[in-house]
Amino acid sequence: MDKIFCVVDIELTEDKEIIQFSATKLDQEFKELESINYYIKPKKQVSSFVTELTGISNEMLSEKMYFEEVAHELYEFIKNDILVCHGLPSDYVILKKRFHDVGIRYHSKMSLDTVELARLFMPTQESYKLSDLSNSLNLYTGDKFHNAAVDVKVTVALLKEISKKIANINSNNFKKIEVLLEKIDYNTLEFARYCKRRFNNKKNSKGNFICFHDVDFKKVSYVINAKRFNNKFILFSSINEQNYIENFKISNYVILKEKSNYVPLNVFKLFPKKEDLNLDKLLIKLYVWILETNSGDFNELNLLYLEKMYIENIKNGVLISSKSYYFDEKKKAAETCENIVTNYNSIEYLLENDNFKNHTYIFENKKILGRELDSKNTKDYFYKNVVVELNVAVSRNLKDKSIKILRNNIDGLVKFLHEMYISESLFLYNDSLSFILQDVEAILNDIKAYRNNLPISYKFMKKLKNVLTNSKNTYKFTVLDQENSLKLTVVDDKKVKNLINVVHSRKHKYLNLKAKYHYIYSNRDEELLNSKAIGSILYVFESNKYKDLYFNKREKRSYIKYYNFSIKDNFNELYNEVIKNNKISYRCYATKDILEYRYYLKDIFESIIVFRDLEH
Predict the structure, then answer these.
(1) Of the candidates 9, 33, 44, which has an alpha carbon nearest to the alpha carbon of residue 147?
(2) How far apart are the C-alpha atoms of 383 and 456, rounded to whole Å?
């Protein structure tokens, strides 16, 4: 790799015109050689949103040159170098297009994306936004992000940090990473090899690692208490365990979760052997992470959705693994300490483990316990699966008109439910509920004769009855204008009650946390549809129906994140997301059960607006 690196960043109008172009050349030691910074006049006016985001105004650009007037200078500066961008795919496409528009053919022979590099080699970072990486890695002390010159400066510092991280990866694990990178991206592979050769000055002490099947894992060590405690406690947290510990000033503790949360030494044997780039990227992150983890807890990783699914799919294998080094070390320490801090996902494991049967169980309050157990014990049922099953049954039994009639009756019922759903009237729905239930009962009677041949349809209709008669359960149309997108979410009440009975048979205590919070009450939707408020706002609805409808018709804004919080959603994830991104405005749509977390809501929302009697 004998080329010069060129770190580039651009600022754009909403029409993707370049209004600022900054670049810095780096030599092979990452020393800065020269920089350029151009402000460029666009064809259209810069919007107030872009000005607010970047600090670049129309007045600043009024005397500047148009892109076509400076394009050749920019091209000459970057044309022969390794292109480095934070968010390469979008910036590279725009650069190629803008150059093409003025008759210049630009193609980088080698390019690097610092977002992707950071994701692979810094897998525990909470966010991969440049400003967040800058803050967590202490790359820049200012705050003028979204200025291309500043962003280039920070990206240069980030590239150096990534190169150090790669250089210090243990050789056993690096060999495995090389094999995976060969399948994923040649540019990243070459860069990783370059960093390993050029900057590897660290001698890794073998005493700090466990080698299992030629893979290195970091050793961990926890305090084992010799002191005997008369009383021991298990504290259940609905927010991040470390935040809970800091909030309540807990001392003499160990964070312990169920076994499936901790990486076993044979983890790489648990994944399927198949060609999948998402899996390959996950494996690279694991090879990096296991060299630095302090707990072995998968939750330390910041993973993409498909990567999380791969972890979820191997958790049964993790549960039965005998190579559970990290879990075993945590469990030994937990058995000797005064306080165990955990989350509600681990409640079954702790209730079933005899080592913890004499501990006192501490919960925030009774309603949070109930909601958390409800959310952990729900299942979704999709009408689209019913449609497929019924259509197959009709096609196989063309002479049996009763199956076709059954299909039509179910289809008619779902259409009626859809009409009630989009009517935006709870009164109309409640008035119709008794008639809907009569139709459900009639269909259930008819389908009983076919339940062996139509098991999905039979179960769906039983669950639909459950949803309509139990306020805990919900239904929604996941795509508002599609009838076939009906989804039922049903709580396993029997399991939840059994768990609560076991809890109440043990020593337990509720903290019943008090929190004063001023709610804004409203029965008008102007607050939702025309809100100009900034900051994080929680909208609370009396029903799931209204929550989903208003969420669907929200006016989307690029600088606001929206959440539709439902019974299956993890409050901890919402809490973490808002607390770590405190510079972003959030709008959360939820039903009244979220108010059970009122003690924590004050930390993440500036306003809570409760809507009552929203009727048209």
Answers:
(1) 9
(2) 9
Question: What dihedral do alpha carbons 537, 543, 545, 548 form, nearest 10°?
Answer: 20
* Of the candidates 511, 510, 512, 515, the residue with the CA atom closest to the CA atom of residue 598: 515
Q: What is the 3-state secondary structure (H, E, C) of 464-496?
A: HHHHHHCCCCEEEECCCCCHHHEEEEEECHHHH
The pair of structure tokens assigned to 585 is 């405005």
State how far the Cα of 163 lies from the Cα of 140, in Å rounded to an integer. 18
16 φ, ψ (degrees, to nearest 5): 65, 25
Q: Helix, strand or coil for residue 215? A: strand
Q: Number of helices and strands (H, E) in the chain?
A: 25, 20
Nearest to 599 by CA among 186, 317, 170, 243: 243
350, two tokens? 């702790």
Could you tell me if 496 and 373 are in contact, meaning their C-beta atoms sit under 8 angstroms apart?
Answer: yes
Per DSSP (E only), the strands in 230-278 are: 233-237, 253-255
β-sheet bridge partners, residue 233: 339, 360
> Per-residue pLDDT tens for 462-492?
999 999 999 889 999 999 889 999 999 999 9
Which residues partner with 236 through β-bridges? Answer: 342
For 92-148, the pLDDT digits (tens) are: 999 999 999 999 999 998 999 999 999 999 999 988 999 889 999 999 877 777 899
Q: Is 353 exposed, middle or buried (0-12, 13-18, 19+ CB in 10 A)?
A: middle
Among the listed residues 240, 599, 614, the one whose alpha carbon sits nearest the alpha carbon of residue 589: 614
Q: How far apart are the C-alpha atoms of 85 and 9, rounded to whole Å? A: 6
- Picking from 540, 518, 543, 539, the residue whose alpha carbon sits closest to that of residue 587 is 539
Output the average pLDDT for the chain.
92
Please give the C-alpha separations between residue 332 and each of 135, 327, 344, 356, in angstroms, as whole numbers.
36, 9, 21, 12
Name every residue whose Cβ is closer than 8 Å to that of residue 549 and which is 6 or more positions away in sequence: 421, 422, 424, 480
Q: What tokens does 412 get? A: 């008619």
Is residue 10 within 8 A of residue 91, CB to CB? The reply is yes
pLDDT category of residue 615 using cuts at 50, 70 and 90: low
d(CA 500, CA 30): 59
Parallel/antiparallel/unpaired status of strands 5-12 and 18-26: antiparallel
Chain CA centroid to CA 21, Å: 32
The first and second tokens of residue 153, run together, are: 């400066």
**Alpha-carbon torsion (521, 524, 528, 533), positive or negative:** negative
Q: Are 115 and 132 in contact (CB under 8 A)?
A: no
Comparing C-alpha atoms, which of 522, 544, 557 is closest to residue 589?
A: 544
Tokens of 321: 């693994």
Contacts of 340 (CB under 8 A, 6+ apart): 232, 233, 234, 235, 253, 254, 255, 256, 334, 350, 356, 359
Q: How far apart are CA 233 and CA 338, in angstroms?
A: 6
Q: Which residues contact 316 (CB under 8 A, 6 or more apart)?
A: 260
pLDDT computed for residue 109 by the predictor: 86
Ramachandran bin of 262, using left for φ above 0, alpha for ψ from -120 to 50, beta for the remaining angles: beta
Q: Which residues contact 479 (CB under 8 A, 6 or more apart)?
A: 485
